[in-house]
Amino acid sequence: MEMGSRTEVDEDGDNNKGRMWDLDQQFDRSIEEEAGRLKNMYTEKVLNRVFTNISLLLLRLAFQSLGVVYGDLGTSPHVFYNTFPEEIVDPEDVVGALSLIIYSLTLIPLLKYVFVVCKANDNGQGGTFALYSLLCRHANVKNIPDQHRTDEELTTYSCCTLIHEKSFAAKTKRWLEKDTYRKNALLILVLFGTCNVIGDGILTPAISVLSASGGLKVAHPRMSNGVILVVAVVILVGLFSMQHYGTDKVSWLFAPIVLLWFITIGGIGAYNIWKYGSSVLKAFSPVYIFRYFKRRRRDGWTSLGGIMLSITGTEALFADLAHFPVSAVQLAFTVVVFPCLLLAYSGQAAYLFNKGDHVIDPFYRSIPGWDSCGARDVGNHGTYDFNHDTEMHGKVSMAWILGLGPSLGLVRVPGTGLVYTELASGVPHIFSHFITNLPAIHSVLVFVCVKYLPVYTVPEEERFFVKRVGPKNFHMFRCIARYGYKDLHKKDDDFEKKLFDNLFLFVRLESMMEGCSDSEEYSWSEPPSEHSRDGNEWGNTMVSSSVNTTVVSYMNMGQISRSQTEMDELEFLNRCREAGVVHILGNTMVRARKDARFYKRIAIDYIYAFLRKICRENSAIFNVPHESLLNVGQIIYV
C-alpha cells in the first residue's frame, strides 16, 4: 500500500510540474508577442511621423516654388492674339492652335523638363553651367586651365556614372574629345545659352507685366497707354526691389498670389468650356495639328511664334533647381500648373470658337462679366584664358629663382606679400618684373591663385590647397583657392584670415610629416625635375592632398612634439603677418607687335582691349582692400 501511494504521488507531482512548465511557456510567448506588437507599433509610429514630416516639407517646398519658378510660365495672356494677329478665318483653326499649345506644354515642360532635364542636375543645381560642369567631369572637354589631379578628390567633383563603351553617350564623349574646335564650340554654346537666359530674365518680366497691365483698359477703355506704362514700371520696380530679401521670403510672398492666379485662370477656363461648349476638347487628338498646317500652310508655320509664348519661362524649371529640389518642382507642375494651364487655354479656345472676332484680347474678354469694349495688347571664354596663356608663356623657371638665393638677390623687408596670379604652378612673370625694378621684397611671399572649378561649390575644408615653392629658407609658398560656380568669392570677407590659417596648418603638418618620414605612408617624394609637369613646386604635394588623414594621425601621435624648426617658422610667419600684408596684383597691358598682321592687331589692340576695359578690376574680384593694394604694371607684346 505504501509503495502504491508513493507511486501515485510521484506521478501527480510530475504531471503538475509539466502543467506548470507549459503555463510558463505560454506566458513567455504571450509576453514576447506583446513586446513584438508594441515594438512594431512604435516603429510604425516613428516611420509614419518621418514620412509625414517629409511629405509636409515636400508640399511646402512645392507651394513655395509656385512663387518663384512658375510666375512667367503662367502669365501669357496674349498667346492666341499673337497666333492670329489678323483674324480667325476658320473656327477649326482655333482647335488646331489649341492642339499645338496642348502638345507644346506636354512635350517640352512636362516630359522634357520635368521628367528628363531636371534629373540631369549637378548635386541639385540646375542651369547652363550645371550641365557644362557635368560634361566637363564626365568628358575631357573643359577649357579651364590649371587643373590639378587633387581637384578630382573634392567631394563635389565626384562622377561615378559608368558609361558602356558602345553606348550613344560614349560615342558622343569620344566625338567631343576628339577635336579642340568642338570643345571651343561647346564652350561658346554654353556662354551663348547663358547670355540668352540673362536676356530672358531682363526682357520677359517687363513684357509679361506690361501685357498683364494692359488688362486695365478692358475695365477703363479711356485709360491712356502712358498710364499703363507707369503702372507696369511701378510693378516692376516693386518686384525687383524685393529680390534682395532672398528666395525664401520672396517665395512665401508670391506663392499665394501665383496659386490664386492658377486656380482662377483654371476655374475661368472650366467655366468657358461649360458655357461655350466642350467641342474644343477634341484638340487633344494630334490629328488636328496635321490638319492645321495642311489648311493654313505658310501662315500655320509663322504662327508658331505665338504658340511658343505658351511655354515661355520653361527654362526656370531647370535653372531654379538651386532653390528647390527636383521633387518639389515636379509636384507643383504636375498637380497645379499643368492642369490649370490646360483648362485656361482650352477655355479661351472655346470662347474664340464662338466669338472669333474677339481675337484681340480673348484672355480678358473670356472672363465672366468682362465681355465688352476692345483693348489693345501693348506687348506686341574669353579674356579670364588669354591672360592665362600669356602668363604661362612668360613664367619664370625655378632654376632662375634658386640662382637668386634665399634673399632673391634683394633686401627682404618685414611683411607678407600676396602675389596674385592665374598660374597654379610656376612663378609668374609679373614677379620677375617686380623684383627687377624694385630693390626690396617681402620676407614672406605667397603666390595666390584663385581657380573656378566645374562644380557647383567647393566645401570650406577643401577650398585651400597650400604648398611650398623652393627651399624652406626662401619662405615662399603657393596657395590655390578653389571655388565653384555658385560660390561668391567677393562675399568671402575672411579670405585673408582663412589663407593664413591654412598656411600655418600646412607648416605644422609639414613638420609633423618630416618627423614621421620613416613611415611609408607619409614618406616624402624627391623634388621633381625641372622638366616635369609641375617642376616649379617643391615635392610636398602629399602634405596638402592628405590633410584629413594626416590630421587624424597627428592627433593620435601625441608623443611627437613640435620641432624647434616648426616653432621658429610659425613665429616668423606670424611676425611677418603682423608687420603688414600687401596684395600685389599684376596690371598687364597686352599689345600686338608692330609686325603683327592686320586682323591680329584689330583683335588685340581694339577688341581685347575693349573687353578688358568693361571687365571688373581684379581688386574688386579678389575683394582686396585699397589701403594694402599694390598694382604692378607691364606691357606684353604678342
TrEMBL record:
GO terms for molecular function: potassium ion transmembrane transporter activity. It is a multi-pass membrane protein. Residues 1-20, 520-539 are annotated as: Disordered. This is Potassium transporter 11-like protein. It comes from the Eukaryota. The chain crosses the membrane at residues 46-63, 94-115, 184-203, 223-240, 252-270, 300-318, 324-345. Belongs to the HAK/KUP transporter (TC 2.A.72.3) family. Keywords: Ion transport, Membrane, Potassium, Potassium transport, Transmembrane, Transmembrane helix, Transport. Residues 414-636 form the K+ potassium transporter C-terminal domain. Residues 61-370 form the K+ potassium transporter integral membrane domain. Its main location: membrane. The lineage of its organism: Eukaryota, Viridiplantae, Streptophyta, Embryophyta, Tracheophyta. GO terms for cellular component: plasma membrane. InterPro entries: K+_transporter, K_trans_C, K_trans_N. It is found in: Cell membrane.
